[in-house]
């Protein structure tokens, strides 16, 4: 079995599990809906105020739901000692990492695509012109979140108090992703020229590359038993 | 163990000396009177008075000379300032005047203007910076000594 | 073991580090509090700089040592290097918290606010959060080897993240507050530089000294635990034999 096959099988396994149980995506979507509801209660918003804060609300909702998905990604492997089985895969552990990143990215991205129309409808946004740019921002930020999140999901799953430790460790490290995603989304929603917020897209791209590589190396050490 | 206490005692003595020196250095800058005290006690000799320059009273004659009224809580002082050209003499500014109280003319003859001291912040910052470090280090050193003694006493230590 | 020899050699100079730290700090404090003139713009409050800036420098130094030590641990897997990493993390957390605290005290008289979302303050806060996360992570792992390994991974990932965090926060600030309060405008005259130098050197020496003491403490703790455990198992074995 080559490394590429390992990646494919991991992604396939996660998709099949998800299709059969429908646990992760449904819980993520409903959690995000509740977050949106809570936010719209806590800030009584008119059209103008909504423009200012909507990007922040969106990314807080996405990050929290992402953490739910990331936590589930490895905690489901605890059943029936699947984690030990993964540790015994003869191929390089990096292949498992890439497979898990791909699966986590797919889940988070699907949830974001499902939720985005909700934001558009509930907060009366006009996004028709910038839709491709927004998709690019979502893509870059989600790659960053899932690249580093998968590493810490694998790390925290083997310790006590894992549900608490994942956000505590992850959120300070993804501060750049959050800032860049919020600023870029705000710029795109306001219809600003790309030159004004293009630097944030560059920052996201750099972050993605750096942390995919670093996490890829570190994953080997996390999975050592 | 006694060695530890001797060392920390020495450090404590040096620190105390430093604190006393600092206090002496700034003591002159700390004491100041307010206008009502000057009115009541009519002190002789050079004093420091804390107050606010009353709005609309400042008249500058030339670079180093000015007259204004110093506002306190319940009293005011007419002030005649003569000295180096002041940088921070403005209306409604709180400042410290250094000079003598002329009881005969009821005018405060100021010769210099000082800045209102905010030594509380400095003292707070130094205490916050150094005290926790010292306590932390002391606790750690003591614990290391205890551990050494425990290892010796329980005969746990043997050459491997 | 070469590492043990290195550490024993360093330990021999421990007293020099401690004495040097005490001397430098005392001279620095004397110069800073009494011997130096007040700043033209800030007045006497500038004296807070002599305690705040060395604390901040030392915490950055500490984080670098933590990342290098973590790399060293992952390479050699020597438990005493891990003791050093754990010690340096706790100390750096303390130094960072104190740097933030003195910075807040400095901000009140100069900027008239205890807290501002200044780039440097924000990135130091994130740094403190990462360090607290590191220390928490270590308490939640049962196996000491795993504890060391996971800690090292988090420290290295955090170290790689630090410059990115700093840049992103700085961009974010310049975007929202163009007239951002910056310390760069304050030119440091030589009268202020000498006490600052003494305090910086003194703080770094103090940090090294505290690091030695704390590493020793963690090492002895581990030794005692191991020996006690071995004695206990021997005791139980002899009981079951008879």
Please specify the SSE layout and strand pairing.
The complex is a heterotrimer of chains A (225), B (160) and C (242).
Chain A: H1 3-21, H2 24-42, H3 47-75, H4 82-87, H5 93-122, H6 131-156, H7 162-173, H8 175-190, H9 194-223
Helix pairs in contact in A: 1-5, 2-3, 2-5, 3-5, 3-6, 3-8, 5-6, 5-9, 6-7, 6-8, 6-9, 8-9
Chain B: H1 2-30, H2 35-41, E1 46-53, E2 59-62, E3 65-71, E4 76-82, E5 94-102, E6 107-114, H3 119-153
Parallel strand pairs in B: 4-6
Antiparallel strand pairs in B: 1-3, 1-5, 2-3, 3-4, 5-6
Chain C: H1 2-12, H2 14-35, H3 49-76, H4 79-111, H5 119-139, H6 144-176, H7 190-241
Provide structural commentary.
The complex is a heterotrimer of chains A (225), B (160) and C (242). In chain A, helix 2 packs antiparallel against helix 3 (47-75) and helix 3 runs antiparallel to helix 5 (93-122). Chain A is globular, with a radius of gyration of 18 Å. Helices cover 83% and strands 0% of the residues of chain A. Chain A has helices spanning 3-21, 24-42, 47-75, 82-87, 93-122, 131-156, 162-173, 175-190, 194-223. Chain A is mainly α and 225 residues long. Chain B starts with a helix and ends in a 7-residue tail after the last helix. Chain B has helices at residues 2-30, 35-41, 119-153, and strands at 46-53, 59-62, 65-71, 76-82, 94-102, 107-114. Chain B has a 5-stranded mixed barrel with strand order 1-3-4-6-5. Chain B has 160 residues and is of the alpha+beta class. Helix content of chain B is 44%, strand content 27%. In chain B, strand 5 and strand 6 form a beta hairpin. Chain B is built from 3 helices and 6 strands. Chain B folds into 2 domains: 2-25 and 119-144, no CATH class; 32-114, Nucleic acid-binding proteins (OB fold (Dihydrolipoamide Acetyltransferase, E2P)). Chain B is rod-shaped. Chain C has one domain (17-35, 46-179, 191-230). Helix content of chain C is 83%, strand content 0%. Chain C has helices at residues 2-12, 14-35, 49-76, 79-111, 119-139, 144-176, 190-241. In chain C, helix 2 runs antiparallel to helix 7 (190-241). Chain C starts with a helix and ends with a helix. The interface between B and C is medium-sized, with 33 and 37 residues.
């Amino acid at each position: 079995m080559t490394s590429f096959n390992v990646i494919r099988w991991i992604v396939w396994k996660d998709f099949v599990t998800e299709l059969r149980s429908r646990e992760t995506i449904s819980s993520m979507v409903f959690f995000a809906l509740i977050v949106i509801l809570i936010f719209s209660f806590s800030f009584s918003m008119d059209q103008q105020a909504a423009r200012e804060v909507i990007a922040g609300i969106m990314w807080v909702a996405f990050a929290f739901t992402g953490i739910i998905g990331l936590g589930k990604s490895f905690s489901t492997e605890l059943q029936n000692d699947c984690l030990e089985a993964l540790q015994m895969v003869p191929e390089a552990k990096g292949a498992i990492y890439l497979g898990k990143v791909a699966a986590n990215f797919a889940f988070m991205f699907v949830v974001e695509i499902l939720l985005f129309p909700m934001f558009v409808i509930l907060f009366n946004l006009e996004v028709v012109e910038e839709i491709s740019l927004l998709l690019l921002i979502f893509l870059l930020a989600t790659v960053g979140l899932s690249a580093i999140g998968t590493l810490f999901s694998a790390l925290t799953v083997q310790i006590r108090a894992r549900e608490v430790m994942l956000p505590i460790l992850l959120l300070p490290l993804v501060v750049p992703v959050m800032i860049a995603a919020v600023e870029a989304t705000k710029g795109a929603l306001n219809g600003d020229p790309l030159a004004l917020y293009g630097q944030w897209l560059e920052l996201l791209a750099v972050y993605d590359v750096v942390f995919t590589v670093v996490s890829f190396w570190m994953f080997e050490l996390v999975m050592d038993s | 163990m006694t060695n530890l206490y001797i060392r920390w005692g020495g450090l404590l003595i040096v620190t105390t000396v430093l604190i006393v020196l600092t206090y002496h250095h700034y003591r002159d800058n700390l004491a100041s009177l307010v206008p009502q005290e000057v009115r009541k006690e009519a002190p002789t000799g050079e004093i420091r008075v804390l107050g606010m320059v009353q709005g609309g009273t400042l008249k500058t004659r030339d670079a180093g000379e000015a007259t204004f009224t110093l506002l306190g809580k319940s009293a005011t002082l007419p002030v005649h300032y003569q000295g180096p050209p002041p940088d921070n003499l403005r209306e409604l500014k709180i400042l410290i005047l250094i000079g003598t109280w002329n009881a005969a003319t009821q005018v405060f003859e100021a010769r210099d203007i000082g800045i209102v001291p905010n030594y509380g912040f400095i003292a707070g910052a130094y205490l916050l910076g150094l005290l926790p470090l010292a306590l932390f280090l002391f606790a750690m050193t003591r614990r290391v000594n205890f551990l050494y003694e425990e290892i010796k006493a329980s005969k746990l230590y043997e050459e491997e | 073991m070469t590492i043990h020899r290195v550490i024993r050699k360093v330990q021999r100079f421990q007293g020099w580090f401690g004495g040097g730290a005490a001397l430098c700090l005392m001279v620095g404090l004397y110069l800073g509090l009494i011997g130096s003139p007040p700043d033209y713009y800030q007045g006497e409050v500038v004296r807070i700089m002599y305690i705040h800036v060395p604390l901040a420098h030392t915490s950055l130094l500490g984080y670098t040592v933590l990342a290098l030590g973590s790399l060293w641990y992952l390479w050699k897997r020597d438990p005493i290097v891990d003791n050093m990493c754990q010690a340096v993390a706790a100390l750096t957390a303390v130094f960072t918290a104190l740097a933030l605290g003195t910075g807040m005290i400095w901000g009140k008289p100069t900027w008239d606010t205890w807290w501002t979302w200044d780039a440097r303050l924000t990135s130091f806060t994130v740094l403190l959060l990462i360090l607290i996360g590191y220390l928490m992570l270590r308490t939640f792992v049962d196996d000491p080897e795993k504890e060391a390994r996971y800690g090292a991974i988090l420290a290295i990932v955090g170290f790689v993240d630090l410059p990115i965090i700093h840049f992103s926060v700085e961009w974010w600030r310049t975007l929202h507050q163009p007239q951002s309060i910056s310390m760069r405008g304050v030119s440091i005259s030589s009268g202020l530089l000498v006490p600052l130098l003494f305090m910086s050197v003194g703080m770094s020496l103090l940090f090294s000294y505290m690091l030695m003491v704390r590493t020793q403490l963690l090492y002895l703790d581990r030794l005692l635990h191991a020996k006690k455990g071995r004695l206990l198992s021997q005791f139980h074995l002899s009981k079951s034999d008879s």
